[in-house]
Amino acid sequence: MTLSRPLQILMMLLLAIAVAGCSSTGGRKKGGGYYKDDGPDANPPSNLDQVPDAVPRIEPYASGANRPYVVFGQRYVPDTTGQPYKRQGIASWYGKKFHGNSTSIGEPYDMYAMTAAHTTLPIPSYARVTSLVNGKTVIVRVNDRGPFHSDRIMDLSYVAAYKLGIIGPGSGQVVVESIQQDEIRRWASSGAPAPEPASAIGSTPVVAPVAAVPVALDAQPLAQQPAPAPGSAPVRQPVAGGAGSVYLQVGAFSQPANAQSLVSRINTQLGAEGAPPASVEQSNNLYRVKIGPYPDRQSAMNAVQRVADRIGITPSIAAQ
Q1: Measured between alpha carbons, how far is 82 from 126 in angstroms, rounded to an integer?
Q2: What is the pTM of this model?
Q3: How many other C-beta atoms are found inside a 10 Å radius of the C-beta of residue 208?
Q4: What's the pLDDT at 183?
């Protein structure tokens, strides 16, 4: 059946409203961090720290939510080609005003689920979001469109923003990185669980972006640092960069035991291949797991995919 022109226009308008999702309406509060008339519940659950991250899995894309669309005169083209996505920018959050409303995929928005809105990432898909303020990382399921503001790249659910520490300020600098289907398949085929919940640094590795805001180095001398447990990897102190000072960073933890555990796994899996060893570098209150040194940046870049294939974590380049 062929629709009349007025009916076609009406349907297009309805589609535009639907894909706008929960994030497209409302202005920002002056000095606030969430949408006008929005915010947290008066009595949010007390166990938000225990809300697990989204568990990546391969899902069919929603046909309607992945078509090109126009909001506020701006045309958006969702990318379903499978190309990697990694961007730095400002993330905000949305809460009770939209709780229970339909998202662009047709699911009800749950402010206490680990979800997010993005203008062009496939729906549904999964992404790592890392705070450049505190290094915390979460994994979210993208099931909505937005934010339709030029100064922001992602709207997080209330609980995702809570776990990244941006509820108070309302927004924060982050790196958003898509989780590729090949990576999800590697997790499934290896029999290893998907990334563990990341309620705080130390519960799961933080894959830090190359452009991350540097953390102030710990000024405490090595002699005053706690001695490592017998048989564990030494805790290195940062040194000035130079030749042979390029590393691959694969995680950052608040607890040294978690860092040592990852070091042991990496050295067991990569040691037989003649790869540089993994070790722990303490920086302020973080224990960063790094592999290296490599003789130069190109050598480190050449090793990124091999390391990712072996341990299931994609490292980033990090100069010592």
Answers
A1: 12
A2: 0.53
A3: 24
A4: 85
CATH 3.40.50.360 assigned to 201-224+234-319: no
Token digits of residue 264: 């042991």
Which residues face 157 on adjacent strands?
Answer: 94
Render pLDDT for 157-211 as a digit per residue (tens, 0 to 9). Answer: 999 999 999 888 888 999 999 999 888 888 766 655 454 433 333 333 333 333 3
- What pLDDT shows up at residue 207? 36
Preceding omega of 230 cis (within 30 degrees of 0): no
Which part of the chain is CATH 2.40.40.10?
Answer: 20-186
Instruction: Supply the DSSP symbol for 51.
Output: P
**Coil, helix or strand for 296?**
coil
CA atoms of 230 and 232, how far apart (whole Å): 6
What is the identity of the amino acid at 208? A
- Rounded CA-CA distance 109/96 in Å is 10
Higher pLDDT among residues 234 and 170, named by residue:
170
Three-class SS state of 108: strand
98-147 pLDDT tens trace: 877 788 888 888 888 999 999 999 999 999 999 998 889 999 999 999 99
Q: How far apart are CA 290 and CA 317, in angstroms?
A: 9
Q: What is the mean pLDDT of the chain?
A: 73
Portions of the chain given CATH number 3.30.70.1070: 201-224+234-319
Q: Read off the amino acid at residue 194.
A: A
Contact present, 204 and 112 (Cβ < 8 Å): no
Q: Are 224 and 275 in contact (CB under 8 A)?
A: no
CATH C-level class of 20-186: mainly beta
Give the tokens for residue 79: 């990318």
DSSP helix/strand/coil, 269: helix
Q: What region, left, alpha or beta, does residue 57 occupy, with left being phi > 0 and alpha being psi -120 to 50 degrees? A: beta
49 CB contacts (<8 Å, ≥6 apart)?
Answer: 163, 199, 200
